[in-house]
Amino acid sequence: MIFLAGGHLVIFSDEVVGKMTRFVAPPESNLEAGGILLGCHRGPHVEILDCTVPMRQDRRSRFGFVRRDPGHQRAALAAWQTSGRTVNFVGEWHTHPEEVPTPSGVDRNTWANEMARRRSDPLVFVIAGSAAVYCGLGYEGRLTKMNVVATTPGGTPRALISGSKGPRATTGAAAEGQE
User: Fold this and answer.
1) CB atoms within 10 A of CB 63
2) Active-site residue identified among 28, 32, 47, 176
3) Where are the domains of the chain?
4) I need a labelling partner for 169 at 20 to 30 A (CA). Which of 113, 136, 151, 176 fits?
5) How far is CA 19 from the centre of its chain?
6) For this structure, is 98 an active site residue?
């Protein structure tokens, strides 16, 4: 799946889409879930190759997810080392218990803090809902809502595209503009 905003492409591997999709279907959808996004910066673009999923020490509730487990940091460090220092933290994802997710005030504050810590590279912020996905790009202190421009043929789960059993990317007028 590929998103676009302001000349920046964000490309998700099918593996990442599959991992996130798992948490918007029962029984996992009863509690918010999340993790970090791991990938590469390629000029102004971001390629997301992997993500972490909820771990034992994380806190999950119906309306909240707090990433506390040090396993997320260990996964980022391992990816960085095994890739020859090319794969790194590129953002974070979590779920919301709603069909079409929108960032909460807590989400926006958390993302603003991440953008302040990492000023040189764009960051990707994803919220998966039961029928749609919000994807935002944080760059130079601004959050921009991204538009889906392509899906990967034969690899992206149908539910993510169609919304029939899981999230789809928000498209059209609902996805246009900036946040």
Assistant:
1) 11
2) 32
3) 2-175
4) 113
5) 11
6) no
